[in-house]
Amino acid sequence: MKNEFKVIADLIEKDKKVLDVGCADGTLMRFLKENKNINIRGLEISKEKVQECIAKGLTVIEGNAEKDLKQFPDKSFDYVVLSQTLQAFLNPELVLNELLRVGKKAIVTIPNFGYWKVRFHLLFKGTMPITKTLPEEWYNTPNLHMCTIKDFFYFVKSRNIKIFKSLALNNLNTSLINERNLSIKNLFADLGIFLIEK
Amino acid sequence: MNIDKNIKTLIVKKPLKLDCGKTIKDFPIAYETYGSLNSKKDNAILVFHALTGDQFVTGVNPITKKDGWWSYAVGPNKAIDTNKYFVICSNVIGGCMGSFGPSHKDPDTQNIFGTNFPVITINDMVNAQYNLLDHFGINKLFSLTGGSMGGMQVLQFISNFPDKSKTVIPIATTSSHSAQNIAFNELGRQAITADNNWKDGNYSSNNINPGKGLAVARMAAHITYLSKKGLQEKFGRKLQEREDLKFGFDADFQIESYLRYQGSVFVDRFDANSYLYITRAMDYFDLTNQFKGNLSNAFKNTKAKFFVISFTSDWLYPTQENKDIVIALNSIGADVGFVEIESDKGHDSFLLDVPDFLSALKNFLDKSYIEN
Question: For the domain that residue A102 is a member of, what is the CATH number?
Answer without folding.
Answer: 3.40.50.150
